[in-house]
Amino acid sequence: MNTQRVQTKPPTRFVFVLLDNFTLLPFASAVDALRLANKMAGQAVFEWVLMGEGGEEARCSAGLSFYLDGDLGEIARDDTVLICGGVNVRDGTTPRLISWLRREARKGATMGALCTGSYALAKSGLLDGKRSTIHWENIDSFTEEFMDVDLTKSVYVMDGKRVTAAGGTSTIDLMLKLIASYENEDLANAVADQMIYSNIRTEQDTQRLSVPTRIGVRHPKLSMVIQKMEANLEEPISPAILAQDVGMSTRQLERLFRRYLNRSPKRYYMELRLQKARNLLMQTDLSVINVALACGFASPSHFSKCYRSHYDTTPYRERGSRAGAPH
Q1: Which terminus has fewer CB within 10 Å in the chain: N or C?
Q2: Does domain 211-324 correspond to CATH entry 1.10.357.10?
Q3: Which CATH superfamily hosts domain 12-194?
Q4: Which of the residues in the chain have pLDDT under 50?
């Protein structure tokens, strides 16, 4: 397929803002998609620059360093900014970055984020009232902190001049959509072929595997119960009601969980709640009491006892170790 065209407009420019400890895969996928688009078009229909605080270099979470083209500076209203986040995104979202994002957004530029970069946009207030997404590990903490953002579990979201991708390979899907939007569908498909990316996802696709795939069990009633559990962590539902909702007795539900997951429904539910609690402790400044309430524990002492039993440490010690933890 011939995707080459006569140059009729200046190249569309992308500004990648690399935060300290950004995740490599989303950034690399985005840049290579633009490179391939230029190759397939036979000309530079896209160009890109790398920016970051200090303007010298940025280090990704894999330990590689990248030279920057410059410090946070002026951009054009036709530019597309993509904030590349990763681990410790809260530390990378500095007051200076927030001021810069707000100032440049007022000019009308498209503001976007890859992986946890959505946190920086939300902290700047640029996602208020907008649909957005972020890596699934950060959904619980993001929801607690930014109640004015319409957070989804989609692989990527485009809402006016705000674009976000959840990270990983979802960046490819977003970039293909942007290439099609800025240029044409044929060019985007040609880039997908070059990347050997045969299953292009849309905004309707969600990040995580389905429950049956995730747990390795294809039992419809078991999947339904787990979905209900995951959707009701703050106000847990009793096993009796869960069983009733899927047309089973409590004893049948107990046998089902024992057979396929080697634990009771109550234990499995507890592990889901404790996992959410750990995410909140590591990713937010919520008090331990508020974390306990957000995960369905009425008593801080009961929460601490359950947490210690599962993770072999207390919630307070876990909070103290956050500085060296991912995301």
Answers
A1: N
A2: no
A3: Class I glutamine amidotransferase (GATase) domain (3.40.50.880)
A4: 323-327
pLDDT value of position 302: 94
What Å distances lie between residue 234 and 276, 286, 294, 305, CA to CA?
Answer: 10, 15, 5, 18
In this structure, which amino acid lies at residue 261? L
| Closest C-alpha to 85, from 64, 110, 60 | 60
The predicted model scores a pTM of: 0.79
Angle at 270 between CA 267 and CA 274, to 5 degrees: 140
Number of H helices, E strands in the chain: 15, 10
Rounded Cα distance between 281 and 187, Å, is 44
Helix H or strand E encompassing 17: strand 12-18
**82 closest CA partner among 98, 67, 96, 101:** 101
Parse the chain into domains and list their residue ranges. 12-194, 211-324
Select from 135, 154, 152, 158 the least CA-distant residue to 86: 135
At residue 182, what is the residue type? Y
Q: Which residue has the tokens 């490819």?
A: 172
Cα dihedral 233, 239, 244, 250 in deg (nearest 10): 160
